[in-house]
Request: fold
Amino acid sequence: MHPSFTRWLSLQAYGVVTRTLFRPDTPPQTMRRRFERFGGTSRAAMQRRHPAVVFGNHRAGALAIESLRATPRPRRRILYLHGGAFVMGSPDSYRSRALRLSYRCDAEVFVPDYRLAPEHPFPAALEDALAAWGFLTETLGDAARTFVVGDSAGGGLALSLMVRLRELGERSPAGAVLLSPWANLTEAASAGSHRDLWLSDAHLRGWARYYAGTADPGNPLISPACAELSGLPRQLVLVGEDELLADETRRLVARSRASGTDARLLVGVRMQHDFPLTLPWLPESRRAWVAIAAFIEGGVP
Reply:
C-alpha cells in the first residue's frame, strides 16, 4: 500500500471513529465507558505480548498510581498525565501508550488515576497531579531525572502542574513533553483555521464547562496558556498541523519563548490531534517519537 494512501486512510478512519463515538453532545459517562471499552488493555493481556513488562501499584493518599517499565533498568522516570478532555481516560486505557513511552524513552512511567469531571471539577485533577508529583519526588527522590508528559487535556494539566510548582517554590521536572496540549479552556482557544476531523468548538466549550465547573475558565491554573510562563522547565510541544488546537499551540509556544522558557515546537504535517499516540504507525508519528526520545535523553544530567 502506498504511504500516501495509508496516511489518508488512517486519518479518515481516525475521523470516523472519533466523530462517531465522541460527539459534542455525548454524555461524559458514555464517552468514558466507550473510551475504556475501545482503549483499555489489561495487564495480563499486555504481559502475554510483552513478558518483560513490569507493573507496580502505588498510592499518594487516596490517589492510585500505576507504574510500568518496559526496560530492565530504566534511566529516568516519567509522570504521565493522560488525556481525555478531563472527563475520560485511566491507567487501563493509557497502558499501551505508557508502554511505548517507557520503551522509547528508557523510563519507568507513572500514570495517576486522577479524578475526572464533571463529578470532580477543578481543582481535583490538579490536586491529584500535585500529589503524584510529590510521591515521585518525595518518596522516590531525584527530581532531576524525572519528567512530565501529558497529552491533550493531560498536556494542559502538565503545564498547570509546572506553573503551580513554580508558585509553590517546589522542585520542577527535568523537562516536559506536551502532545496536542489543551492549555486554553476559554472560548478564544479555537480561533483560527483548521481541518480537524474530530474536534470542534462545541467539543471544547462543553468539556471546558465540565472541568471548570463554577470557576473562571481563564484562571491560569485551568488555562495555563493564560499564565506567566517564565521560569518553567524546558518543553517539547507537539501538535498536528490540521487540528483545532494548532494555532493556539503555536501561540502558546511563542509566549513561552518570549518569556525566556526553552520551548520547542514540532508540527506534524497534515496530522491530527494526538497523532503520535493515535496513529503511531505513520512516518510522521515515528519521527515524532524519535524527537521525543531525543528530547528526554538530552535532559538527563
Remarks:
- The radius of gyration is 18 Å.
